[in-house]
Design goal:
The complex is a heterodimer of chains A (about 325) and B (about 525).
Chain A (H helix, E strand, L loop, with lengths): L2 E6 L5 H6 L7 H6 L4 E4 L11 H10 L6 E5 L2 E2 L10 E2 L2 E2 H11 L2 E5 L1 H5 L12 E2 L3 E2 L2 E2 L16 E3 L6 H12 L15 H4 L10 H5 L72 E2 L3 E2 L8 H14 L12
Helix pairs in contact in A: 3-4
Chain B lengths: L17 E8 L2 E9 L5 H5 L6 H5 L8 H16 L5 H27 L14 H8 L5 H9 L3 H9 L8 E2 L2 E2 L5 H24 L3 H5 L4 H10 L1 H5 L1 H12 L11 E3 L2 E3 L12 H4 E3 L2 E4 L2 E3 L6 E4 L23 H5 L9 E6 L3 E3 L5 H8 L13 H8 L4 H25 L16 E9 L2 E10 L2 E8 L1 H6 L10 H6 L11 H9 L6 E7 L5 E7 L4
Parallel strand pairs in B: 1-16
Antiparallel strand pairs in B: 1-2, 3-4, 5-8, 6-7, 8-9, 10-11, 11-12, 13-14, 14-15, 16-17
Classes of the chains: A alpha/beta (about 325), B alpha+beta (about 525).
C-alpha cells in the first residue's frame, strides 16, 4: 500500500496527537490491516534500520518512491527568507518541503498551519509562517498557486486545529482501497465529503438556532439555547463535519457548550483575537449579528428571526440538556 | 568539531527539533549541549491581543499538553481578574487535566520510551526476546494495547471539553459547559473500562490499591515477588529489565527538582489568588534542592537567555520577560545555541539554579513533610531517591506510578460533581491586572505569567517543562538538567549509544531529538541518531 512520509514544520503536534486518537481504523490497523508503509513519522516508533537521513534524501531525490507526503505545521521562512528558524536534518525544513513535494505522488497538508499558516501566521507572524499552498485564503502559500504533485493534484488540505483523525484516516483508507477518484475537493482544496456540510449540521442546539433562542451564560446556562447569538459561535459559517463525525467518538465543542471558533476556515483565529472578539458575537448596533449564516441575506435573516421568535414554542425557552 | 559519518541506530528516527551534542571520553559522556531548533514566537503573537487569547493560543504551543496549557492559562486569568470559582468548575478542570495525563502516560511510555528496549545492544539480555514481543513498534503486544487504549482517557476529556486535543472550554470563572447525568456516568464507565483493560490488567498485573500501598523500594521489590501477574506486568518488566541492562545506573540529572503542583481542592480555591495557590493544591508543588524542601514561589523564577537565540543582558522574572529573537547564524557567534530559554530558580544561598521537572519532581514534592489532609502525601520516591538514587529507570517508574494515582483521583472527582450546582460564575473583565497560572503537565511544570493593561495583553510569558529540562547553559555556564543528566553516562558502543537515547527520552521532552556523539579528545563525530519525540 501507500508509502507515507510525515514531517512537522512549525507544528505543535496536535494533528499527530489527534491522529493517535483514531479508531476504525486506529494507527495499528492502518499499518497492520491496510499495509500503510509509514516511512517515517516524528512521534511513532518505526523499524527503520540504519541511516534514516539517507532515507529522506532517497525520497527527496526520487530514488525511493513516495506516494504520500503529509506535512503538519507551518512552513517557516524567517529570518529573511532563510528558514533558519526551523532547522531539520541539517537544513531548513522549507528546503525539505520543496524537494519532497516535488517527488510525492500526493501532498497532504494536515491542520491549519500546514493548510494556511494557522496560529503561527497570526500577526505579527514572527516566524514568517505560511501554508503549503495557501496563505490564509489567498492561494499561493509556500509551493505557489500552480503547484501540482506527481499525481496531478494540488495540495489536499485537511484543515482544523487540529484535524479530526477520521478526516485523514478515511482518506488514507480510500487511497488504499481504490477510491482515489471519489475524493472531490472544494475551492479551498478540502475533501468535500467532509467540508461541504457546516459545523452546525447535526448540532444538538440547532432547534434553538431555528427559534432564535440564545444561551445567556456559560456553565449551566448552556443547558439551553444556541451559542451563535451571544458567544460568537461560528457553526453556521464554518464548513466541517464536527457534529456528524464526533470528536473522540463522544462530543463536539458546541454539544459541550463551547462556541465553534471556525478553525477549519483560513481566517482562524478570527479577527486575529483582537480585544473584545473572544467568545463574543460581533454585532451591529449592539443587537444584530455582523455575520449571519453563510448565504443568508441580512434583511431576510432579520425577517426570519422576527418570525421565528414569535413562533418559538415554550420548550425552546427552557433547559433541554438537563441533569 | 567536525561532522563525519552518519550512523543511525536501528531504533533511531531521524533528527528534528532538538539536537543533542555530546562528547565522549574513555567510554563516558564528558559534556553535552541541547539545542532546540524551531521558533514560532507565541509570546510575541499574544501581545496586544484580547486578554483571553491565551486560552486559544497557548494550547497550540504544544498539542501534546494542550489541555495543560489551557488549564494554567485559565488560572492565570482567574488570578488576574479575581474570579469566583464554583466547586464543580474546579472539579471538571481537575478531571480534564488528569485525563490528559492519563492519556499521556501509556502513549509516551509505549510509543516513545519502551521501544528502545528492543535495541540490539540488549540482545544479550535473557529478557530480550520478551522485550521484543511486548514492545516492538506497532506489533508488540503491550505496544498495541497501550498506544491504542491511550485514546480512552481523552474521551472523558471530550465529554466535558468537546474534544481533545485543543479545546478551550476552561474560561475565567469556570468551565463553558454543564454535564448531564449520562456525561458523568459514561465518563465513569470509560475510565473503569480503561482501568480493567490496561491499567490493572497490563501495567500493574494487579489492583490499583495494592500498588499504591508501596511506600519504599523494598515494598516495590516485595510487590513484584508477591504474584506472577505483578512480576510479569509491564511495570514489573520495566524494573526487572532496567536492573538487568543497567537503566538504574545512569541518567541521574541535577538531583534538584521543581514542581509547581496541580489540582485544587474545590473548597480551598473558590477565589483563586497567586498567594493562596500552594495551600489549595492537592498535588503539591515544591522545590527540592540540596536535600531540602522549599515552598514554591513564582517570584523566584528567572529566565536566562545568555545561550539562547534571543536578545537580553540579564535573567528576568517572567512578568518582566522579553522575547526578542535573533538570527541563529548571528547568535551562534555569541556562543548561543538554542531557541529554548534557560529557566532558573532562586533558592536561598544556592542562587539561581537549574531544576529538573516532571513526574519524579512531583514525587519528591509529594514526599515533603507537613502535608495537609487534602494533599498528596507519598513517601515512595523519596525512599527510592535515598535508596538507589535517581536514574532513567526511576524517572520512568515515577511516571507510571502516577497512572494508578491519578486514576483514583479522577474517579473521586467525578463522584464529587454536584450536577444540580453551578459550573460557572461570570467574572468582571478588569482592564488591568497581573496573573499567574500553573499546572503539572504530564512532563512537568507549565506556567503562564500575564500582564493585562488597557483591556489587552501587555506581556505574556510561558515557561514550559521542556524549557526547564532541556534549556541550555546559563550565564554562569551551568548546564541545564538534561545536559547534566547526559554527563557520566557510560557508552558501551560509541557507534550506537542507546544509553543517550534512554536519558533523552526519560525526560519526555516532547521534542523530536537528535543525538550527535563526538569523541571528546579528537572531535570526531562517532555517531548521530535520532530519538523521536512528540513535537
Amino acid at each position: 500500500m501507500a508509502s507515507v512520509l510525515w514531517f512537522q514544520g512549525g507544528a505543535c503536534s496536535g494533528n499527530t496527537m489527534s491522529f493517535l486518537n483514531a479508531d476504525e481504523p486506529n494507527v495499528v490497523d492502518l499499518i497492520v490491516d491496510f499495509g500503510l508503509d509509514l516511512i517515517w513519522h516524528p512521534s511513532l516508533g518505526l523499524e527503520l534500520g540504519k541511516n534514516a537521513q539517507k532515507l529522506f534524501w532517497d525520497c527527496a531525490k526520487g530514488d525511493r518512491p513516495l506516494d504520500v507526503f503529509v506535512f503538519e505545521g507551518s512552513v517557516i521562512e524567517a529570518p529573511n527568507g532563510t528558514g533558519r528558524m526551523d532547522m531539520f536534518a541539517d537544513r531548513p525544513m522549507k528546503d525539505w518541503v520543496t524537494d519532497l513535494a516535488a517527488q510525492a505522488g500526493i501532498v497532504v497538508a494536515i491542520g491549519d498551519c500546514a493548510c494556511w499558516g494557522g496560529i503561527p501566521a497570526m500577526e505579527p507572524n514572527p516566524s514568517s509562517s505560511t501554508g503549503l499552498q495557501f496563505h490564509k485564503r489567498n492561494k499561493g502559500g509556500f509551493l505557489g498557486p500552480n503547484f501540482t504533485s506527481k499525481a496531478g493534484l494540488p495540495v489536499i488540505n485537511i484543515p482544523g486545529c487540529p484535524a479530526h483523525p477520521d478526516w485523514i484516516t478515511q482518506i488514507l483508507v480510500a487511497l488504499a482501497t481504490g477510491r482515489t477518484s471519489d475524493i472531490a475537493l472544494d475551492e479551498l482544496q478540502r475533501p468535500e465529503t467532509f467540508f461541504k456540510t457546516f459545523t452546525q449540521t447535526g448540532c444538538t442546539r440547532v432547534q434553538f438556532y431555528e427559534y432564535k433562542q440564545s444561551t445567556m451564560s456559560f456553565g449551566e446556562g448552556t443547558r439551553t439555547g444556541c451559542l451563535f447569538y451571544e458567544f460568537g459561535c461560528r457553526g453556521p459559517m464554518t464548513h466541517s463535519p464536527c457534529n456528524r463525525i464526533l470528536w473522540n467518538r463522544q462530543s463536539s465543542k458546541t454539544r459541550a457548550g463551547q462556541p465553534c471558533y471556525g478553525c477549519t476556515e483560513p481566517e482562524f483565529p478570527h479577527f486575529d483575537l483582537a480585544p473584545g472578539t473572544l467568545f463574543k458575537t460581533q454585532k451591529v448596533a449592539g443587537v444584530i449579528p455582523k455575520e449571519t449564516g453563510t448565504g443568508t441575506k441580512k434583511l431576510s435573516y432579520m425577517a426570519a428571526a422576527a418570525a421565528a421568535r414569535l413562533a418559538a414554542p415554550d420548550w425552546s425557552k427552557e433547559d433541554m440538556f438537563v441533569v | 568539531m567536525t561532522s563525519l559519518d552518519l550512523h543511525v541506530s536501528p531504533l533511531g528516527r531521524v533528527e528534528g527539533d532538538l539536537d543533542v551534542r555530546v562528547t565522549i571520553e574513555d567510554g563516558v559522556v564528558s559534556s553535552a549541549w541541547t539545542e532546540a531548533a524551531m521558533f514560532r514566537g507565541f509570546e510575541i503573537i499574544l501581545r496586544g491581543k484580547d486578554p483571553q487569547a491565551g486560552l486559544i493560543v497557548t494550547p497550540r504551543i504544544c498539542g501534546i499538553c494542550g489541555g495543560s496549557h489551557l488549564y494554567k492559562s485559565a488560572y492565570a486569568l482567574d488570578t488576574a481578574w479575581r474570579t469566583t470559582m464554583p466547586d464543580n468548575a474546579t472539579l471538571v478542570r481537575n478531571i480534564a487535566q488528569g485525563c490528559e495525563t492519563l492519556q499521556s502516560i501509556p502513549r509516551y511510555y509505549y510509543a516513545l520510551f519502551a521501544i528502545d528496549f528492543t535495541n540490539k545492544n540488549y540482545a544479550g539480555s535473557p529478557m530480550y526476546d520478551e522485550a521484543v514481543r511486548r514492545y516492538a513498534p506497532y506489533v508488540g503486544t503491550s505496544y498495541q494495547k497501550g498506544v491504542v487504549l491511550s485514546q480512552k482517557p481523552v474521551e472523558v476529556y471530550a465529554i466535558f471539553g468537546g474534544q481533545w486535543p485543543h479545546s478551550s472550554f476552561m474560561v475565567p470563572g469556570g468551565v463553558m459547559g454543564a454535564p448531564t447525568l449520562s456525561d458523568v456516568t459514561r465518563s465513569i464507565a470509560i475510565l473503569e473500562n480503561w482501568k480493567d483493560n490496561w491499567l490493572e490488567s497490563d501495567l500493574l498485573g494487579g489492583s490499583v490499591d495494592r500498588w499504591l500501598e508501596n511506600k519504599t523500594w523494598s515494598d516495590v521489590l516485595a510487590w513484584m515477588d508477591e504474584s506472577e501477574s505483578h512480576y510479569n506486568s509491564d511495570i514489573g518488566f520495566l524494573i526487572r529489565y532496567s536492573l538487568d541492562v543497567g537503566l538504574d545506573k545512569y541518567g541521574k540529572g541535577v538531583g534538584n527538582y521543581i514542581s509547581t503542583g496541580t489540582y485544587f481542592d474545590p473548597s480551598l480555591y473558590r477565589n483563586p489568588t497567586i498567594d493562596g495557590r500552594n495551600k489549595a493544591l492537592i498535588g503539591r508543588g515544591g522545590v527540592f534542592a540540596d536535600g531540602q524542601w522549599f515552598e514554591f514561589d513564582q517570584a523566584n523564577v528567572r529566565e536566562d537567555v545568555s545561550h539562547s537565540f534571543y536578545q537580553g543582558s540579564r535573567p528576568l522574572h517572567p512578568f518582566e520577560g522579553e522575547t526578542i529573537p535573533i538570527d541563529p547564524e548571528k547568535a551562534k557567534a555569541q556562543g548561543k545555541y538554542s531557541w529554548a530559554k534557560s529557566p532558573r530558580y532562586e533558592v536561598g544561598d544556592l542562587g539561581a539554579i537549574p531544576l529538573e521537572t516532571g513526574p519524579l519532581a512531583r514525587r519528591m514534592a509529594a514526599a515533603a513533610p507537613n502535608a495537609a489532609p487534602h494533599q498528596d502525601a507519598d513517601p515512595l520516591f523519596l525512599d527510592i531517591y535515598n535508596t538507589i538514587g535517581p536514574s532513567v529507570m526511576v524517572r520512568q517508574l515515577a511516571r507510571l506510578h502516577e497512572a494508578p494515582k491519578y486514576y483514583k483521583w479522577v474517579r473521586g472527582w467525578l463522584d464529587q460533581i454536584n450536577l444540580k450546582e453551578s459550573f460557572y460564575s461570570k467574572p468582571t473583565e478588569y482592564a488591568e491586572g497581573r496573573g499567574f497560572g500553573s499546572t503539572e503537565a504530564a512532563r512537568g511544570s507549565l506556567s503562564d505569567w500575564i500582564v493585562i493593561e488597557d483591556s489587552k495583553i501587555k506581556n505574556y510569558q510561558v515557561v514550559t517543562p521542556t524549557a526547564w529540562n532541556i534549556g541550555p547553559r546559563d550565564s554562569a555556564d551551568v548546564l541545564g538538567p538534561m545536559e547534566t543528566a547526559f554527563v557520566g553516562s557510560p557508552i558501551v558502543d560509541p557507534e550506537d549509544p542507546v544509553e543517550l537515547g534512554h536519558v533523552a527520552r526519560s525526560f519526555d521532552s516532547c521534542l523530536v531529538c537528535t543525538v550527535h556523539a563526538y569523541d571528546g579528545k579528537t572531535g570526531r563525530e562517532l555517531s548521530k541518531f535520532v530519538i523521536n519525540g512528540m513535537v
